[in-house]
Amino acid sequence: MILDDMSRSVLVLFVIPVLLCAWPGAYVSAEDGYDLWLRYPPVGIELRAEVASHATAIVIPATSAPTAETAITELRTGLSQMLGIDVPTRQTIVDGAILVGTPDSNPLVSGLELPLDDLGDEGYLIRSLQVSGTKITVIAAKSEVGLVYGVFGLLRLIQTGQDIAALDMVNAPKIELRLLNHWDNLDRHVERGYAGQSIWDWWRLPGFVDPRYTDYARANASIGINGAVLNNVNASAQVLSARYIAKAAALARVFRPYGIKVFLSVRFSSPVELDGLKTADPLNPAVRDWWKAKATEIYEHIPDFGGFLVKANSEGQPGPQDYGRNHADGANMLAEALDPHGGVVMWRAFVYAQDNPEDRVKQALNEFKPLDGEFADNVLVQVKNGPLDFQPREPFSPMFGMMPETQLMMEFQITQEYLGFSTHMVYLGELYREVLAADTFVRGEGSTIARVIDGTLHGYKRTGIAGVANIGSDRDWTGSIFGQANWYAFGRLAWNPDLSSRQIAGEWLKMTFSTDPEFVGAATEMMMRSREAVVDYMTPLGLAHIMGTGHHYGPAPWVSDLDRPEWNPYYYHRADSEGIGFDRTSQGSNATAQYAAPVASRFSNLETVPEEYLLWFHRLSWDFQMRSGRTLWEELLAHYDNGVAEVEAMKAAWMSLKSYVDPGRFKKTAQYLDIQLEEARWWRDACIAYFARQSGKSLPEGARPPDRSLEYYMSLEFPYAPGN
Question: Fewer C-beta neighbours within 10 Å, C or N terminus of the chain?
């Protein structure tokens, strides 16, 4: 049979989608996770007809720069793949067209007199309009990068099955710097990375630029990330050599059309190590001149270079204290070098010292609080979400809110250093939401962490949020399919900290797997419960830092013989025959006093402290009566059992969703859930065996005893754990 053009169009637009969508698991070919949430699969027949009527053509500027061309290309690619037809571009308006542009680049946009003044440099507007009786959809922004974000915003609406017939959307980021921190070394080893080698092939750069770098930039731009710190905070001075600046410049050229700036982690002693200066003293004129010259050299090759990230005087890294100076002295020296070029310094507050007898969780605020107000305007102090170190659960860091004259930015971890690595399903959107919604009370109720870091609470001029990346060279980017959800959630919350983590999970599932309501509902519930499950089988009731030494893999609460006391798990739980927990009230280390009075009072009082932080702030007897009516010992066991049961339920839920997912991604996730269940039982059994011995308590009647002896669990070694 020979089909005319109209018949072919009908076949493509209606018949083929019916065949594709005739059953729940409407996949055609195997998927491996490479496409992330940007798969752009064909949409269902009803939505297809609606979208097609609002995407008859893309109206583009007469001339455009690379960033606008990036936006147009993405929009055309996404629409064409989802509709199964080639969406044309043109320069005049037709019915159902999508008009894309800025007032400066497109007279058609300028003539609409749209309310763009409050969008800033990155915001966008999407609106359904009638122009002289012609129905159009406009994506407009003040800048071309705003068009990129606007295009991804419209495509996200279509991918998630939203109605696009009557749009009126204004969207702008609430935080200025939204960065990924790559803990990638120049030899391609990734510290705390569980997705293979570094994606940066430093050896072959700048001569060979892997196409994967463009896909990386696309993915980040789609969720609003606008910066990448390319290398590990435990930095090598070589990254500032001419050879590596050229390599970073090659990456910057790839990222630039997507609105992403390159940043570098720098080693404080670089002047000594690279050029033989006798000192790195930040008040030494020769040292200051060296950094100024180095900044100028970088900007000659990377005109939009973002700035420096610095880890100093922490865990053996060099810093200004080596010369009797303080953190502000060091940060401000670098800020002075970058300021003429518009760069920023992100100075990490993750500091603690071996010879400091103070409770480790108090050391950061004690060290930085006296410097409040002394940092330059282009310095942001980068603070981890909790006062310890990316644990499954911590109270928020007391630094947030307690340094009103210093621009603080958030540091979250996306890679799962203390959360079972990439083989454990842990939706971190819930962790991020918990922290961002926490109330510091420093200016009364409503002084949330989100308001601290978006600048509205203290009037910061510069704002930022960073996530330690979980990206590597694995085909699926993050080592697991569900690890991608944490990258996605970080980006969405970095753009707007007030978004719902449940909404974000649903978006990601629809874009990554299926829009079927039964699938999305069940999978969302599984994701939302996953983080609490991990807390329960690892560190319930406020326990923390009880993982294996060095590799941070698996349970090891018994470790107590390391050289540095604060590296020992025993330091944090102190379990013995009398009780368990770390007393941080006024009767103990008084860490509660670092919080605003209402928070300090809540954490200090056994009647008001949230039970999820109980053993973080209090040392209690094993027979302490919990709110459930159980003893502390019985409650601890109940949480460990619940964690294992939740993973069993997650596995069962996933198995019930098989018809909605392609075989490859389904099988990999199922196998990972098998690993997670096995390791959840290991965590439960090893910790119960240890705490039973320390407490002298017997297991409650009916409780399952550990599968193996405590000596067996203590004998396990993992010399080749990834990311170590």
Answer: N
Q: How far apart are CA 134 and CA 148, in angstroms?
A: 25
Do 204 and 144 have their domain in common? Answer: no
- Asked whether residue 527 is assigned to any structural domain, the reply reads no
Q: What is the mean pLDDT of residues 242-253?
A: 98
Pick the last residue of a domain from 171, 189, 213: 171
Residue 633 is classified by DSSP as: H
On whether both 311 and 373 belong to a single domain, the answer is yes
Mean pLDDT over 65-73 rounds to: 95
Query: Three-state SS across 414-425?
Result: CCCCCCCHHHCC
As given in the structure block, the two tokens for residue 362 are 């108090």
Asked if the structure places residue 283 within a domain, the reply is yes
Q: What is the 3-state secondary structure (H, E, C) of 211-263?
A: CHHHHHHHHHHHCCCCEEECCCCCCCHHHHCHHHHHHHHHHHHHHHHHCCEEE
For residue 460, what are its two tokens? 């910061």
pLDDT at 356: 80
Which of 449, 395, 384 lies closest to 610, judged by CA? Answer: 395
Tell me how far CA of residue 374 lies from CA of 328, 382, 492, 709, in angstroms: 6, 15, 32, 55
- CATH number of the domain residue 124 falls in: 3.30.379.10
pLDDT band of residue 46 (cuts 50, 70, 90) is confident
Which residues are catalytically annotated?
Answer: 315, 389, 417
CATH code for the domain in which residue 295 is found:
3.20.20.80
> What is the rounded average pLDDT of the residues 600-620?
98
Q: What pLDDT score was predicted for residue 30?
A: 72
The answer to whether residues 260 and 392 belong to one domain is yes
- pLDDT tens-digit readout, 664-715: 999 999 999 999 999 999 999 999 999 999 999 999 999 999 999 999 999 9
What region, left, alpha or beta, does residue 84 occupy, with left being phi > 0 and alpha being psi -120 to 50 degrees? left
> What does pTM read for this prediction?
0.95
| 90 plus 194 within the same structural domain | no
Residue 25 confidence (pLDDT) above 70: no
Residues 196 and 50 in one domain: no
Provide the pLDDT for residue 64.
75
| Domain that includes residue 624, residue range | 536-582+619-715
- Does residue 17 lie in a domain region? no
Name the band, by pLDDT with cuts 50, 70 and 90, for residue 28.
very low
Q: How far apart are CA 344 and CA 228, in angstroms?
A: 13
The backbone torsions φ and ψ at residue 267, rounded to the nearest 5 degrees and listed phi first, read -90, 130
CATH number of 689's domain: 3.90.1330.10
Nearest Cα to Cα of residue 363 among 371, 355, 352: 352
pLDDT > 70: percent of the chain: 96
Amino acid 669 reads T
3-state class (DSSP) for residue 311:
coil
Structure tokens at 249: 């410049």
Query: Could you tell me if 367 and 487 lie in one domain?
Result: yes
CA distance 652 to 379: 49
Query: What separation in angstroms does the CA of 208 have from each of 203, 221, 528?
Result: 9, 23, 41
Query: 142, 171, 200 — which closes off a domain?
Result: 171
Q: State which amino acid sits at residue 464.
A: G
Exposed, middle or buried: residue 436 (CB in 10 Å: 0-12, 13-18, 19+)? buried
Q: What is the pLDDT of residues 106-125, one digit of tens each?
A: 999 999 999 999 999 999 99
Name the nearest CA neighbour of 147 among 107, 99, 108, 113: 99
Q: Specify whether 322 is located in the same domain as 230.
A: yes
Residue among 52, 150, 143, 60 at smallest CA distance from 100 = 60
Tell me how many domains the chain contains.
3
Domain-embedded: residue 631: yes
C-alpha distance from residue 641 to each of 327, 368, 540, 656 (Å)? 45, 41, 11, 23
Note whether 185 and 236 are within 8 A (CB). Answer: yes
Least confident of 58-67, 87-96, 456-465: 58-67
